């Protein structure tokens, strides 16, 4: 039986076992095109009505409240330290390919001790990639699970603990996956080289240029925010992004430095929601990716909490840290 069928059957079983009379389906934007088919199929197999959430979900931190008995959340692995109620994670990681020769594009790596990183989608590839690299003479280090991390070697945009755990043991990091954000975040937190083996393109690259560009951008955001008169501190209501204590701390720092600041509570942090407010710079306590990856979508500088500390003189630029959501 195909892996996808197995996961679907597990989902059907979970719905029937829960005794739910109505089910809500939540999915990331990338799976929109399949949502209606999946909903229909689940409905046929279980005889339970299925509703779709039209709001996209950006991670397992973002489980939508719906008027249903069970939520089926597609496309993300659960975050272990969050307490979910009546949620089934329909998570379908990709099986490793027969042939890993595309990894040769990343070789030779800049050092023989390698920290192996990936995302939840490719977590099943880790043992095979490790074996492949070890056959080529590399020593492979994989960070363990814990906190927000469900699988060994798994990066989240809000938790790079698997990289930090092995940083002192390795000469470089190899990220096997797709997209730049996760490995870029690691490159920003360590001086060690980060190489990306891109599973979609079958190519490899180092992230030195992206890292320099991002550092320049962050430096620019901090410099612009230094002349801001009023700051807006953003707090998300999403289950795994809600950091009110941090926002209160940042507010107290602003007061200490005689800066005007106001807390804003919202679901999704977006420019549309922030339009019209008389604010000179934003400080984001929601998903840490927003300030870095979506920076250009905002009309005013948007800072991480650590960058706000630099603006206020509470932290030195040399002590720059990526924002993470700690357990
Ligand atoms: S907080 Fe952001 S990076 Fe973390 S799981 Fe949620 S969407 Fe992903």
Write the layout of secondary structure elements.
Layout lengths: L2 H16 L4 E4 L5 H15 L3 E3 L17 E5 L12 E4 L22 E5 L8 H10 L3 E3 L19 H6 L5 E6 L3 H9 L4 E5 L4 E4 L1 H18 L4 E7 L7 H13 L3 E7 L4 H4 L6 E4 L4 H5 L8 E2 L1 H8 L15
Parallel strand pairs: 1-2, 1-3, 3-4, 5-6, 5-7, 7-8, 10-11, 10-12, 12-13
Antiparallel strand pairs: 8-9
Bound molecules: iron/sulfur cluster.
Describe this structure in words.
By secondary structure, this protein is of the alpha/beta class. It folds into three domains: 3-90, Rossmann fold (3-Layer(aba) Sandwich); 101-207, Diphthamide synthesis DPH1/DPH2 domain 2 (Rossmann fold, 3-Layer(aba) Sandwich), CATH 3.40.50.11850; 215-319, Rossmann fold (3-Layer(aba) Sandwich), CATH 3.40.50. Helix content is 32%, strand content 18%. It has ten helices and 13 strands. The chain has helices at residues 3-18, 32-46, 126-135, 161-166, 181-189, 208-225, 244-256, 271-274, 289-293, 305-312, and strands spanning 23-26, 50-52, 70-74, 87-90, 113-117, 139-141, 172-177, 194-198, 203-206, 230-236, 260-266, 281-284, 302-303. Strands 6-5-7-8-9 form a five-stranded mixed β-sheet, with helices on both faces. Helix 6 (208-225) packs across helix 10 and helix 7 (244-256) packs parallel to helix 10. The longest helix has 18 residues, at 208-225. The protein binds iron/sulfur cluster. Iron/sulfur cluster (SF4) binds at residues 58-62, 156-158, 240-241, 287, 289, 325.
């Amino acid at each position: 039986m195909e892996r996808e069928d197995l996961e679907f059957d597990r989902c059907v079983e979970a719905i029937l076992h829960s005794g739910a009379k109505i089910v809500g389906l939540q999915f990331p934007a990338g799976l929109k095109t399949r949502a209606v088919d999946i909903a229909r199929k689940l409905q046929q197999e279980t005889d339970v009505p299925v509703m779709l959430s039209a709001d996209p979900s950006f991670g397992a931190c973002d489980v939508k409240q719906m008027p249903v008995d069970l939520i089926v959340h597609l496309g993300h692995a659960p975050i272990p330290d969050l307490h979910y109620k009546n949620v089934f994670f329909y998570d379908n990681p990709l099986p490793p390919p027969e042939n890993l020769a595309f990894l040769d594009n990343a070789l030779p790596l800049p050092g023989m001790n390698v920290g192996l990183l990936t995302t939840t989608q490719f977590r099943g590839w880790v043992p095979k990639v490790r074996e492949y690299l070890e056959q080529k003479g590399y020593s492979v280090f994989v960070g363990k699970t814990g906190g927000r991390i469900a699988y060994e070697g798994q990066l989240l945009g809000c938790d790079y603990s698997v990289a930090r755990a092995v940083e002192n043991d390795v000469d470089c990091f190899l990220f096997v996956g797709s997209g730049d954000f996760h490995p870029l975040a690691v490159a920003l937190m360590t001086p060690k080289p980060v190489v990306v083996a891109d599973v979609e393109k079958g190519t490899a690259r180092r992230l030195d240029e992206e890292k320099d560009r991002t550092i320049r951008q962050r430096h620019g955001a901090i410099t612009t925010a230094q002349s801001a008169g009023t700051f807006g501190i953003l707090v998300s209501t999403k289950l795994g992004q809600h950091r009110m204590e941090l926002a209160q701390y940042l507010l107290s720092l602003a007061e200490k430095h005689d800066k005007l600041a106001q807390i804003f509570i919202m679901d999704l942090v977006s420019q549309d929601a922030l339009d019209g407010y008389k604010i000179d710079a934003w400080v984001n306590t929601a998903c840490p990716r927003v300030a870095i990856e979506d920076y250009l979508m905002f009309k005013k500088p948007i800072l991480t909490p650590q960058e706000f500390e630099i603006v206020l003189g509470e932290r030195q630029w040399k002590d720059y840290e990526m924002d993470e959501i700690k357990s």
